[in-house]
Known about the structure:
- The structure is a single chain.
- By secondary structure, the chain is an alpha+beta fold.
- Helix content is 25%, strand content 39%.
- Strands 1, 2, 3, 4, 5, 6, 7 and 8 form an 8-stranded antiparallel β-sheet that branches.
- The termini are far apart.
Amino acid sequence: MQIESKTVQCAKSPQKIYEFLSDFNNFTRLIPTDKVNGWQVNGDTCTFNVGGFMSLTLEYAERTPFSRIAIAPAHNSNSPIPLKATLNLKENGPDSTNVNMVVDGGGGNPMISMMLKPKLRDAADKLMDALQYYSIGL
């Protein structure tokens, strides 16, 4: 399964967006608090609860300065869903960056993938909307 969020234009340089997204503490400004709670950061990992029934621990799997950040389940976690989210940053002018998210994975049960796909796309789009809005104040 692969989903791609919409692309948003942020009014900051790729460096500023990259630095912001490279710190899990900043994600508390982007995630919907009605769906995610218990957000805890420990260096390059974060742990949180989704919908009150599932706990996830994520880590930065890859970071390419100013262009790409990949986030995946932490190696020491028992993630019920093997998803990898990649944030792609592309310069679009001196103080403008296009950003989107691609989510790969869930390669197990097709029924679960079918149920998750629209929810993941919606969550990725909302995260991009929040990043676009919040980036104005960076």
